[in-house]
Amino acid sequence: MGFNRKMQGFSVLIFLFLLFCGHETSHVVKRSIDPSASYPLITDDRLPKDVIPQSYDIYLEPNVEENIFSGHIKMNLTWKSDSKKISIHAHFNLDINDRKIVLRKINKNNSDSQLSDNVSVVRGSRFPKKTIYIIYLKEVIKQGTECLLEIPFEGSIWESGEGLFKGSYSNGTYLATYLRPNNARRLFPCYDEPGFKVPFTVSITRPSHLVTIFNTPLARTTNHSILKDHVIDFFETTPPMSSFTFGFVTSNLVKLQNEVKPEAELKTQSEPVINLWGFEDNVNQLKEVREKVLLAHKAIQSYFEIPLPLSKIDVVVIPELPVVRPVDNWGLLLFKESDLMQNRYYDIAQELIYQWIGSWVTPEWWTDAHLNKALASFLASEIVIKLDGGIEFNGKYPMTTLYSIYYEFSKRYPHSRITAMKQETISYKMELVIRMLNFTLGKDSFQKGLRAFIENLQFKTFVGNDLWSALTTQAVKDGTLKSQYNVADIVGTWFAIHRLPVVTARRDYEKNTATIQQKLYLRERPHDVPEQDKMVWWIPIVLNRQDALNFSNCSPYVWMEKAQQMTINNMPPNDQFIIINQEEIGPFPVNYDERNWQMLSNFLQTETGRALVPTYTRSKLLHDAWNLAYAGDLGFATALNMTLFMKFERNHIVWNPVFTFIDQIGRHIDMPEVHKKFEEYVLILLTPLYEDLGAEIENEDNWKTDLRSLTKRFLCGAGYRPCVEEAQNAYSVWQHSSDPNLENPVPNHYICPIFKWGTMEEWQFGIQRVIEFPKSRKQSERTYLLKTLAGCPTQPEKVLRLLELSILEDNSNFTENDQFLIFSSLTGTSNGYYTLFKFLSDNWTTIREKLKDNTNLWDHLIGSATGFFLTQKGYDMVQQLYEQHSGEFGSAQHIIEKSLRNIKEEALWSEANLPVIETWLNNFLSKNSSKSS
C-alpha cells in the first residue's frame, strides 16, 4: 500500500486496485473502495445552518453476536435563526423512533444552565433519497436559544470497512469504525459535515475481557448494570473535531509497553504519548514499528513546530483490516498489519501528518480533500527523504509519479475510461505543484507559511485559498515572491487545466537572448485538442547556465505569467548550454534548439559534466528528449544523441526511463530491417551496464536487483547470446524431464527469448505444454505461456501455426478467451500484427464463416489485425483489404475505418522519423561493435 500504491497507480491495470480492494476473512467482507476516489461522487447532502451543534454526549452499546448496536446521543444545539425544525444526518440503516426524541430548552439565565420544560416534537421524517432526518417541532424556536436534543437510536454492525464494522483474526473478533468521508451518520445521528467541529463526550460498552481504544484516553470504567461480564468505559472529552474523525476499536490487542528513555529523549509535556497496539507474539516487530512511528512523529513535529492538542496517539495494528488505506481518526490510527510490518516510513508519516492537516485543520468540504491528500503526500515524501535519504523510494520519487502523469495528460483524451484514475492523477498533479512551490518560494518560506496556515486555522476548516494566502503572505514577506504575485493565481492555472504544458527555449546565439514559449504538451497524435491555444499556465523559469552552474538555486529567473511567449536576455556565450527546470522543479518537460541539445549531450559524455549535473536533472534531460521526439517536437537524431552518455552512466534513477523508451520506440519501428538495427543498438547500450552490475549478491540494495533484472530482460529480448544460451539450457532441462506437465522449472524471463530466438522444436514443445496443461496447476501459468508463444516469436511460421491450431482447426484445447489473448499478444510487435493480417487475408472466407455469430471476437480480430500498422505500406495493405471485402466487415466496419484513420496519422510520423532513426543507427553501429556476437 502507501508509497508502493502511489508508484504503481498509473498503470491502468494496476489502477483497478485503487477502485476495488479488500481481503477475505472468515465471514463475508464486502469490497472496500478507496474513499479518495469517491469524494467527488459524494452527494451534497448539506444541512442548513439555522441550527448548529455545540457539543455531543454519546453512549454506544454494540451487540457483536447479533450484529447490531444501540445508543443514545445528547446534542447541545444553538439556534442561529428562528426555526421550528431541526435537520440532522442519519443513514437509512439507522433506526430512530421519533416518539422517543426529547428536546428541552437550556435556561441560560441560571448559573447551572438548568433545563426547562420539553419542547413538543410533532414528528420526525427522512428527506426523500437523502440521509437527512428532519425533526418537526410544535413551536418556533427563537434565534439565540440553546436546547438539548436527546435521540435514542439503533443500527447494524457492518461486515465491511465502513461505519461500525466487525472483523476477525486468529485470536478473536474485533469492532472498529471507519467514518471517512461521511459515515458517522451510520453510527449516530449528527451533523456529518467537516465544518461542524464540536467536543465529543463518549461512553462505550464492551465485554470485560476486551479493551476499547478511543480518540481520547480512558477516564473511568464502571460495571454495566444489566449486561453480565460487560463494563462501560467513559473517555475524556475530545477537543472540537469533525464527525468523520471520531473512532474507536474494541479488541483483545495489547499495548506495547513503552521502554524507559534517557531523560534527554523524554517528550516535552505538550507532545502526545505514542502508543502501539498489536498481538503479543509480534512484540519484537512492533518495537521496530514503534521506533519508526516515534522518529516520524519527531520529524513532523520538528517541521511544523506546533504540538498537537492531544495527550496521546494510539497506533493499532490489525490483521486483515478490510480497508484500502489506514483509518486516520484523530488520536487513533488503524493500520493493516501486513502494511505496517513492512517497516516503511511513508505510510506512517502520511497518517501522522493527517493528524495536523486533516483532523486538526480540516478541509471545508470533500472537494478540497484532494488538496489535503496532495499536501500530506508531499510532506510525507519530504519526511521519508529526511529520515532515510529516500532509500525507501528506491529512486522512484518523484520521477515515476511525474513521468506517469506526463503520459496520461499528454493523451488526446486523458482519463477517458476510468473516473477514479482521473481523481488520483489530479491529486498527484496537485502534489507536484505543491513540490514546485516548495522549490520556487524557498523551503524556508514554504515551511513558515504552512505553520502560519495551521496556527490560524486550529480546530477550523479551510479552503484552498486559505493555504495559498498563507504561503503568499510569507513568501512576499521573505522576498521570495514579488508583491504583485499571488500563489492562488499561480496554482489556479495548474488546477483548472487538467493538462500539462511543454516549454520550449530557442536561443538567438548572436543576440544572447532566448525566446521562451509554452504550449499544451501532447504525445499522442494527432495534436488536435480543441482550444489548446487558450491553455496557458503560470510557469517558473528556473534557469541554469553552463558558465555559472548552481543547481541548489531554485529561484525562478522569471515567471511566465500566463504568457504564450516571452524573451529573456543575458544568455551565456554561444558555446555554452542552458538548462531549464532542473530536478523537475515543475511538472513540465522542456525543449531546446538543436544546438543547445548537442552541447548538453557533449557535456554529459564527459566525466566532469556528469559529476556536475545532478541525477534527477540527467534523468530529466534524457526523458524530455525522447518524449519530445516521440511527440514529433524534436528530431530523433538529437534524442538518440542524448543516450550516448549512458555508456558511462550507472545511476539507476537515470536508467529507469530508458527501458520505457526502448519498449515504446521498439514497438513503433514498423520496419523489420530498422528494428533489427535498433536491437543491436540496445545490445551495445545495455551490455556494459549488465556486465558492471555483476552477479547478484546477498543483501544488496533493491535498486541494484531491480536494475539488473530489467537490464537482463531487455537484453534477452534483443538477443544477447549469453542470455539466450542460459534460457536454452534451462529450457532443455524442462524438455527432458520425465513429466514436463508436472511443473515449469524455467524462470519467466527466459520463456520469451526461447520462443523468439529458439528453434521450431522448442516452440512446439511449448505449444504442447499449453495443450496438455493440467487443471490442477495455476491457470495463470498457462496464460503466460500462451501469451509468450504468440507475442514473442519473430518467425511467421510459428505464429501461423498457432493461429491454425486455435482458429482454423477447432482445437478444443483453445478457448475463446485464448483466442482473444492470442490476438492481443500479436499486436505487440510488427512481426505479430503483420502475420495476423496475412492470416486474416489468406483465410478470410473461412474465418468470416466461423466467427459470423461471434461479433466480439470478430471485432477484436479486425482491430488487432488492422489497427497497429504505422507506415504507408501498412496503410496500403489495410486499404486493399478494406476495398477487397467491402460490405463484409459487419459489426467491425467502424473498427477498420478507425484503423485507416489512425494509420494515416502514424504513417506521417514514420515517414518523418524512421529514415532519421535508421541513418543515426547506421552511423552509430559503424562506430561500435556489438558485444553480443
Could you characterize what this model shows?
- The chain is an alpha+beta fold.
- Among the domains are: 47-252, Immunoglobulin-like (Sandwich), CATH 2.60.40; 501-633, Immunoglobulin-like; 702-927, Zincin-like fold (Alpha Horseshoe), CATH 1.25.50.20.
- The strands form 8 sheets. An 8-stranded mixed β-sheet has the order 5-4-8-2-1-11-14-13, with no helix packed on it. The chain has a 5-stranded mixed β-sheet with strand order 16-17-18-20-19.
- Helix 10 (443-456) packs across helix 11 and helix 29 (872-884) packs antiparallel against helix 30.
- It starts with a helix and ends in a 6-residue tail after the last helix.
- Residues 53-244 form the Aminopeptidase N-like N-terminal domain.
- This is Aminopeptidase.
- Its EC number is 3.4.11.-.
What key phrases describe this protein's structure?
single chain, 933 residues, alpha+beta, Immunoglobulin-like, Zincin-like fold, eight-stranded mixed β-sheet, five-stranded mixed β-sheet, 30 helices, 30 strands, globular
